[in-house]
Amino acid sequence: MTQTMPKIKKSDLKKYIRDIPDFPKPGIMFKDISTLLKDKDALKKGVDMLAKQYKRENIKYIVAVESRGFIFGSILAYKLGAGFIPIRKKGKLPFKTKSVTYDLEYGTDTLEIHEDAIEPGSRVLVVDDLLATGGTVRAVCDLLKQQDANIVGVAFLIELTFLKGKQRLKDLPLYSVIKF
Known about the structure:
This protein is an alpha/beta fold. The protein is 24% helix and 34% strand.
C-alpha cells in the first residue's frame, strides 16, 4: 500500500487551529490544536513539516515537554528513527531525576528528567506544540545542558511571534511550522 501525500499545504494549516477566547483566564486567546490533531491530513502535514526540517540531523533523541509536546514528539521520534525522552512535571517520573525550577507569570514550576535519560554528547531535538514566551523550553534546554546534551534545535508546531519567545532561545536553532 502506497501512501499519498496530504493534500494540505503548509499555508493551510492555520485554519485547523481553533481560537478559544478567555481560556485559561480572561484576556487569553488559546490556540487549540485538537482540531488539527483530529484531521489525519492536517496532522500528517504538520508532522511531515517538522520531520523534513530535521531528517538529516542524525538526532538520537527527541525530548518533548509534557503534555501536548508528547503528541508531536513521539510521532516525530518514530518518523526520524530516534528515541523519545519525556520531560515531566515534578513527581511524575518514577526513577532518580534531575530538575530545573523556572519562573512563570504567576509563580514557579519544576520540570524533571530521568538522570540517566541522555548520554553526554547525544544529539537531541526539543519539541513542543507551541512557543509562547519561551520560558518552559528555555528551562528544558538548561536541564539538558546539565546532562551535556548536544541540542540540535528546538521545534514547534505553532509560534506566537507577538510574545517574542524566540528571543529567550536565540542561542539555539529554532523552527516553527505555523506562526501567529
